Amino acid sequence: MKTPFCVRLQILGIQQNDELEYFENPEIFEDSQHIFPLNIYAQSYGIYVIRLDYYIKKNFIKEEKIVKGKLIFTFYNYITQQFVDIYDLLCTDNNFIKLDGQFWFKDENSISPLIIRLKLQIYYQEYLKYQNLLENIELEKNNLQGNIEKAKTEQRINNENFVNFKMKVNQLKQFYQIQPQYPEIDIAILYSHPLVNQNEKRVSPVQYYDDIQNFKQRISALNKKVTYLITQATKQNLRQVLKYNPKIIHIIAHGENDTNKLNQYLQFENNCTDDFVYREDLQQIMKESKKSLLFLACCYAGEIAKNIQQYATTIAVDKELKMLDDAGIYYFSSLYENLLSKKTLQTSHEEAKKNVEEQLGDKNFQCCHCHSHREACKEIFGKYNDLCFKHKSQCKCEESDKIHDKLSHLWDSNYKCQDIFEVILNQVQEQKNKEFINIKLDQLAQDGILRVCCCELAEKLQDDVSTFIQHTESEKFQIFSQNSTQSQIFNNVENGNLVEINQLSWEEQYIIAWKKDAKVIYNKLTETFYSKKRQILKICAGTSKGERFVIKFAHQVSKYFKFRKLKFYKRNEIEDIQIIEIPLDKIEQLLLKKYETRISYIFIICQLQKDLFIKSIEQLLQLNQKGTIILISYQELFDLDLDSKFYKISLKDWVNNSDKKEKCDYYKILNEYGDELTKKIIETVGEDKIKKLKFDQLLDQIEIILKNQQEQINQFVQN
What we know:
There is one protein chain. The termini are far apart. Strand 3 (39-41) and strand 4 form a beta hairpin. The protein has 719 residues and is an alpha/beta fold. The chain is elongated. Helix content is 41%, strand content 18%. The longest helix has 53 residues, at 124-176. Helix 4 (208-222) runs parallel beside helix 8 (325-340).
């Protein structure tokens, strides 16, 4: 079969100004040109009209642009450089368009595109319809323009009225010296509980829950009328707290020693993510303080305390020291008790340190994990995690009457502790340092005792000078102040009950499992909570085995959300957020319930069955207008495709216990509880037993341990 003669087809008239653009710069159109085989009739090249009409409509004109009319074609003649009307080219009963080389040869050396220009001949009735449409559009445009001008005039008048109103308010303030009134409070507690850090990694919570519970119970036992508020440690909250002029601001947060920036910072929170507050940040905020007493229950906070002492007398631990959680609880509970007994700050401080010493007993001297590493220690011993040599040594030096702490070892001409000597040498990075240390240790020993804090030793080995590092918990607490510490903080305290100024029954969960999932839910709650078009959140519980744990998780996240949305300085906006759990078959009760306008609601709906769920969709949508709904669904219902009013949240951070996963990843669960609680759980249950437990069994064991721990704290408070 003979190969047909083909040309490149360039259609003009499709896009606005395409004809002008083509003849100015034809190269840019080359990629859009189609290869088109020509027809042959009576040994003449050309195109059948019906074929061309079909081809152009199919390939170049969108369906919605086709109107009732007729396509008119004109063809570009390269010789005359003009478009030729189709009627001058038709033959064979007007069916065939006869073309020759004038339409595709610009020169003899190459074939140029066949250029076809389209026109549309619209039928008269169609023309009238579009003419009428254009007239209506013009009328609507004029009306809209009039409304815009009217709205601008109203806005200008409103702006002028608002400016005049503000001027009158300012005049009244100046005349009457009006200032916003904030009730004065005694104590403000700010705790930090971010779920994840800025890299989306989980954050182990500081032990704020025990601190706060202990504070409330200890002060209640004193029968003192103390006003207080509890809120999250954010920059905004701290600024608002200062307006209430509290006697004491108590901040519970992680503190870190940022060696890269030679700076310290407190780990505040911001929308459930951590927020670093450096000493300059806190200094800037505390400038607004009216000489409040500041408690920093944070590690490494000493340098921060030094920088803000001109604005607030501050109690903190040194910049390179960590604080044992239990030590903080014992210290601050005793400090409050003594201050409320009208003792001076200095006396209360000394009594609180004694209480720490008595309560901790042997644990008062911490040789491990109690301070950050110095650069000399990293260079000589390569130390980053293990903060002393004691735990690697099996010596019996502690049995000697000469030894009074866990860092000291026997070292004189008659006896040198060989155990600790080998541990130190094994830790040294370079051989030349080992030889040097072998000679140097004899010189470092004093009165037959060698103190083996790795950082102190490293500095002495480098330049014979070192700074003493405090390892005794009770001695870590320091007062940083430019004022006298002999004054009383509470001069006149009435007997009575604790008064919570923000009227919030604080009960935030210390432990929130699956923290990255919690952040997703928190953000979605934030997005939909105040929206008129709320989405129903659907969380997958896997199988029935996991439902009760996911329900508990939904409560935890809802409470976490609640205590961040109920701002103590915006209580006029919303009074409370109530969390209601109910099975799906009881949903009718919720629809009949009366709801208060200044209270918001979160509904946790559980025990879903497929048939009942499908029947209840309309009721769920009605209930969603009264509050935010969290559905706890099984996998089958979770996979069910619904409209955009339902939003699926899959728990990616933790796969619930199911037939595919009988054993639990116990390390992953325990890590959610922080280092100290993890240690207590492992000691109580036993690591071997924990490894054999299933998911739900382990969580049951943890609940028992946490309950027992709370009872022990209550017993301590009562005593």
